[in-house]
Amino acid sequence: MFQEKNEEDALHPVQRSAGRPDTVRLVFLGGAGVGKSALIRRFLHDRFEHKYTRTVEELHVLEYDTAGSGRLRLEILDTSGSYSFPAMRELRIRHSDAFALVYAVDDPASLEEVRRLRGEILELKGGERASITVVGAKADLTEAEGRVLTAGDVMATVEDEWGANFVEASARTAGNTVGVFRALLHQVELPHRLSPAICRRRDTLPRPAVRRRPPLKKNHSCVLS
Ligand code: GDP
Ligand code: MG
């Protein structure tokens, strides 16, 4: 069942009775062209586009009524891969609950960028435990098609040295795209039954949800009951 979200709801989120905040933000960071938007698009719309469209910054908002525990606003922030102002990236990092650090399996430099981003997150989040999931995107690529990074090697670094989650996924084939979101939702202690099948039934509303945040472009709403 859909539930339309109006402006007032967005500006005055319903208070949750449990300790969990009523808004949870996941942010996708990583170099340009690694496949961040494609993963999000596959999860939300079950679509894939070969054509590359550069993202400026996009905030997807999903709203759920979780049975028994009230309303939940899930924000998925898709970033450009490069910020002209480092202060802006800092702000995004400070205001996010869980991080998908995305690299492409055919681009070793993008893994270096993930390493750098992890360092920045740890620094900015200070003593707080940072919820990081490293995502090897374009997992459909074979060696002949340009894959140079193997899952085993990266996993060893990410899981053993960094103590972070690791998943590989392909937005093109949809392989393990759900696994990316399952890992992120798990890190913020949300049930992974916030599944794409349910999200696909989202409603798209014409107006941005929060006027205070200009980059908002999309606004989806769906209800879990
Ligand atoms: P972003 O800049 O990180 O958001 O990257 P995009 O999601 O826009 O993807 C950049 C390019 O990589 C596009 O041309 C996509 O079609 C392609 N791409 C994205 N995901 C995959 C994937 O899983 N497999 C393959 N083979 N190509 C992908
Ligand atoms: Mg993008």
Automatic annotation (TrEMBL):
Ranges in coiled-coil conformation: none
Any one cellular-component term (Gene Ontology): plasma membrane
Major place of residence: membrane
Mode of membrane association: Lipid-anchor
SUPFAM superfamilies to which the protein is assigned, alphabetical: P-loop containing nucleoside triphosphate hydrolases
Pfam families per record: Ras (PF00071)
Record's subcellular location: Cell membrane
Disordered as annotated region, ranges: 205-225
InterPro entries: P-loop_NTPase, Small_GTP-bd, Small_GTPase, Small_GTPase_RasD
Basic residues composition bias: residue spans: 209-225
Entry's Gene Ontology molecular function annotations: GTP binding; GTPase activity
Keyword field: Cell membrane, GTP-binding, Lipoprotein, Membrane, Methylation, Nucleotide-binding, Prenylation
NCBIfam families: small_GTP
Similarity remark: Belongs to the small GTPase superfamily. RasD family.
Protein name: GTP-binding protein Rhes-like
Organism whose genome encodes this protein: Echeneis naucrates (Live sharksucker)
Lineage, uppermost ranks: Eukaryota, Metazoa, Chordata, Craniata, Vertebrata
